[in-house]
TrEMBL record:
<dbReference type="GO" id="GO:0003677">
    <property type="term" value="F:DNA binding"/>
</dbReference>
<keyword id="KW-0804">Transcription</keyword>
<keyword id="KW-0805">Transcription regulation</keyword>
<dbReference type="InterPro" id="IPR000847">
    <property type="entry name" value="LysR_HTH_N"/>
</dbReference>
<comment type="similarity">
    <text>Belongs to the LysR transcriptional regulatory family.</text>
</comment>
<protein>
    <submittedName>
        <fullName>LysR family transcriptional regulator</fullName>
    </submittedName>
</protein>
<dbReference type="InterPro" id="IPR036388">
    <property type="entry name" value="WH-like_DNA-bd_sf"/>
</dbReference>
<dbReference type="InterPro" id="IPR005119">
    <property type="entry name" value="LysR_subst-bd"/>
</dbReference>
<dbReference type="GO" id="GO:0003700">
    <property type="term" value="F:DNA-binding transcription factor activity"/>
</dbReference>
<keyword id="KW-0238">DNA-binding</keyword>
<dbReference type="Pfam" id="PF03466">
    <property type="entry name" value="LysR_substrate"/>
</dbReference>
<feature type="domain" description="HTH lysR-type">
    <location>
        <begin position="1"/>
        <end position="58"/>
    </location>
</feature>
<dbReference type="Pfam" id="PF00126">
    <property type="entry name" value="HTH_1"/>
</dbReference>
<dbReference type="GO" id="GO:0032993">
    <property type="term" value="C:protein-DNA complex"/>
</dbReference>
<keyword id="KW-0010">Activator</keyword>
<dbReference type="InterPro" id="IPR036390">
    <property type="entry name" value="WH_DNA-bd_sf"/>
</dbReference>
Length: 295
């Protein structure tokens, strides 16, 4: 058994398919398949349940994978520690962001990090909070810009920015006549939000103190850009992050924008990473760069 075997096993668990797993590992399917068969023979157990179209881990395979993740995390830590000893600001830095942050922040962050750390190889990934958290825990990411606090003690976060939330509405809407806008003024049956799985949707629901989500408009989409377009078209109203305004996304004809007076109408952006990460010096420096971009 070697490190490569564990990487192959993890790829099968993620992709559920030998071809896709092999592609993600940059090897041929027969190479990956034969190597995993050797691993099973070495251990004397069946780790993978195979069908013609898919593959999934057996119960014992799941247990082995848990230990494999720990082992691969330790290997990554060893590599990072040795790289940091020579130059903590070089090598590959893999970070992610949720879709309601990345369009507005990531381009500026990439420019800032590239200018400050020219020997750092930046790798970016966009996904929802749940997936990014999984990637952090299994070692696929070094850090992620999230708008929620870590839900596991294995992660910690550096606060970056408290971002106000704004209301957008079509010009001519009744909200335009109000001088001071409160959450209680919002017609929830006109509210267009992101689909389930996006943390920004959950934050908007919590802000509006919704006990039943059936009071919302039936329309839900997967991007803020689509939401803004629907509001411009007169299909409803929405809540958006203030970064959308500072980035120029809200500079459109027929779109009204107002601040909310509620004290809790904000979200906190954080740089989240594993507590065990050996790259603390780099993470602190990266957080300072991101903070400078945001403030």
């Amino acid at each position: 058994m070697n490190i490569r075997d564990l990487i192959y096993l993890r790829a099968i668990a993620r992709h559920g398919h030998f071809g896709k797993a092999a592609e993600s590992c940059n090897v041929s399917q027969p190479t990956l398949s034969v190597q995993l068969q050797k691993l099973e023979a070495d251990l004397g157990v069946t780790l993978i349940e195979r069908t013609k179209r898919s593959a999934m881990l057996t119960p014992i395979g799941d247990r082995v994978l848990g230990l494999a993740d720990d082992a691969l995390g330790a290997v990554d830590a060893i590599r990072s520690i040795t790289a940091e000893a020579s130059d903590p600001f070089s090598g590959q830095f893999r970070f992610g962001s949720i879709p309601t942050i990345s369009p507005f922040l990531v381009p500026d962050v990439l420019r800032a990090l590239g200018g400050s750390f020219p020997r750092l190889q930046l790798v970016f990934r966009e996904n929802i909070t749940e997936r990014l958290t999984e990637d952090l825990l299994n070692g696929d990411l070094d850090a992620a810009i999230l708008a929620t606090q870590p839900e596991t003690p294995r992660l910690m976060a550096i606060p970056l920015y408290d971002e106000p939330l704004l209301v957008i509405y079509p010009i001519g809407h009744d909200l335009g006549a109000l001088d001071h806008l409160d959450v209680s003024d919002l017609p929830l049956d006109q509210m267009i939000l992101l689909s389930e799985g996006h943390c920004f949707r959950d934050q908007a629901v919590d802000l509006c103190r919704l006990k039943s989500r059936t009071t919302l408009a039936e329309t839900s989409v997967t991007s803020l850009e689509t939401i803004i377009s629907l509001v411009v078209a007169g299909q409803g109203i929405s809540i958006v992050p203030a970064l959308a305004q500072s980035s120029g996304w809200l500079d459109r004809p027929n779109l009204g924008v107002k601040s909310l007076q509620n004290a809790n109408a904000t979200r906190q952006l954080n740089l989240t990473f594993r507590k065990t990460s050996p790259r603390r010096a780099l993470l602190k420096a990266v957080a300072e760069q991101m903070h400078a971009v945001l403030n």
